[in-house]
Amino acid sequence: MINQSNGKVSFYPAVGFSGTRTTRFHADDGQFNASSNTVYLFVGSDEEAPHWSSPERSITTVYQSDYVNFSTLWTDNSELKSFIFSIDRGSGWLNYSETSMTGPSNTSIKRLQMVSPGGTQISWRFYGFDIAGNMNYTDIQTFTLATRPLPPSPALPPSQRGLKFSKEPELLKPKKGIKNFTVSPSFIRVLLKQGETKTRILQILNPR
Predict the structure, then answer these.
(1) Are 128 and 109 in contact (CB under 8 A)?
(2) Where are the domains of the chain?
(3) Which DSSP category does 148 fall into?
(4) In the chain, pLDDT over 90 holds for what percent of residues?
(5) Which phi and psi angles does 46 have, rounded to 5°?
(6) How many C-beta atoms surround the C-beta of residue 4 within 10 A?
(7) DSSP H or E stretch at residue 162
(8) Which letter does DSSP use for residue 134 in this model?
(9) How far apart are CA 77 and CA 50, in angstroms?
(10) Architecture label for domain 51-144
């Protein structure tokens, strides 16, 4: 079939045909005519799987809750069809839905959030398919989720620098010469954060 707009010729073999055919093109303008050279057409089955390269992730150091783009380049001798992304986040392999991919070259991309805790080893790979049903897959890629560093402790205000605090408060003892003097509770222990206040009731009894 000749496309009248661009002059390109397309050939469509019968379903299941495999072999060699030849053709020639003839042109005639009503006054002159000419013939082309012989063109050989080879039709066979496609048994070559897609080729992959450059598997990458968008972040080098990945922490828990980070979003990561995984990608791989694909090429095919005919036409790509689709890809599947597979990942193991510490609890077994999970395959995501098949995603379309066209042309003789393309890039498979999958974006995911890392929900595993820090220290978990992550494994991932892509599967690629062409229109003839051939399949290939990348090598397994791995990395370990990093653990986020703890924030530094807040600095003490100047008024509290250099102060020493005892591990346990000393019991309140009545002074000598004072009788029937009681304090309840006998000691008070309160944990406070900077800027926080708390109230405790202290009962002092002296019947005399």
Answers:
(1) no
(2) 51-144
(3) P
(4) 47
(5) -90, 115
(6) 7
(7) none
(8) -
(9) 7
(10) Sandwich (2.60)
Q: Angle CA(74)–CA(9)–CA(104) in degrees, nearest 5?
A: 0
Residue with tokens 């000393």: 170
Burial of 198 (0-12, 13-18, 19+ CB in 10 A): exposed
φ, ψ at 125 (rounded to 5°): -165, 165
The count of other CB atoms within 10 Å of the CB of residue 191 is 6
How does residue 191 score in pLDDT terms, banded at 50, 70 and 90? Answer: confident
Q: Determine the pLDDT at residue 86.
A: 98
- Give the separation between CA 7 and CA 19, rounded to whole angstroms: 26
pLDDT tens by residue, 63-109 = 999 999 999 999 999 899 999 999 999 999 999 999 999 999 999 99
Entry pTM: 0.56
pLDDT tens digit string along 13-36?
A: 776 666 677 788 788 888 888 887
Tell me how far apart the alpha carbons of residues 39 and 21 are, in angstroms, rounded to a whole number.
8
CB 129 within 8 A of CB 135: yes
| Residue 183 pLDDT > 80 | no
**Are 71 and 121 within 8 A, CB to CB?**
no
